[in-house]
Amino acid sequence: MVRDENNVSRRRLASAYVAMVASISLLLFLVGMAGLLFLNAQKIAAYVKENIGFSVIIKEDVRQADIFRLQKLLDARPYVKSTRYITKEQAAADLKKELGEDFIGFLGYNPLLASIDVRLFADYANTESIAQFEKEMQAFPQVKEIYYQRSLVHLVNENVRKLSIIILLFGVLMFLIAVTLINNTIRLAVYSKRFIINTMLIVGATRSYIRRPFLNQSILHGLIAGAVATTLVALLSYFIQIEIGDLMSLNDPLIIGLLIAFIFFIGIFISMFSTFFAVNKFLNIKVDHLYY
Fold it and tell me: Among 114, 169, 248, 280, which residue is least crowded by beta carbons within 10 Å?
């Protein structure tokens, strides 16, 4: 009978520890993702800027050799990241696919013109540089016009700084939530052992002796939770890279090292900090208050 009760107590204790480590792991994972976003904020902003499309519309009856020559000139420009030549036929096929209708059959001709799709480097995707680029392109006799979404360019440039601030605030918020919830989780775990702590005090154990196993256990929990959280962050980041390409700096040893160290530090520090004060509370509490 006693053995069965001990087994039940051990299972409950093990379940409580697993739940605590899982909770800490989840919170550290959220903090880690916020940290990854913050460390990659500049790269995310550059990614958005470099995916703004600029269509250099070519005049009718321009020879293909002249178009290729213009494309080579664009490729040689220091502000141009990439170019792609789109023929009239390809432009028509793309629009037909987008509309879901054969507009050429309805009109009886292809009204679209050939174009060169241009992507600029992030440092040049600002209003002033784009205006200079547009002026330079219009000087070429092959070019009819430059088309791009001016409102999108303005919106992106206006909100890049706001994006960094939002990511930073999100990271700070997640950190505060993690500290609060981890602290509450550990306090509940220590609360379940309040009578053991009191018994150890009665038999003459010193405060440091009583704290030691709790603090050692908190370090272990922090290490396990940190390992789980970093694994989850790495897996999610891997799948993000598969979907959107090399947007996250997962190949940068410095960023990876900083993020891993930060997650483990937060996990261990908060666990130890919360455990220390939770144990101290029950070291100083009166016996009568243990039942509340």
Answer: 169
Name all domains of the chain by residue range, CATH numbers in brackets: 2-45+157-291 (no CATH), 53-148 (3.30.70.3040)
Could you list the pLDDT tens digit for every one of the 292 residues in the chain? 445 545 555 666 567 677 778 878 888 888 888 877 777 777 777 888 888 889 899 988 888 889 899 999 999 999 999 999 988 888 878 777 877 777 676 777 777 888 999 999 988 888 888 889 988 888 888 899 998 888 777 777 777 777 777 777 877 787 787 777 777 777 777 777 777 777 887 888 888 888 888 888 888 988 999 999 999 888 887 777 777 666 555 556 777 788 888 889 888 888 888 888 878 877 776 665 555 5
Look at the pTM and tell me if it is higher than 0.70. Answer: no
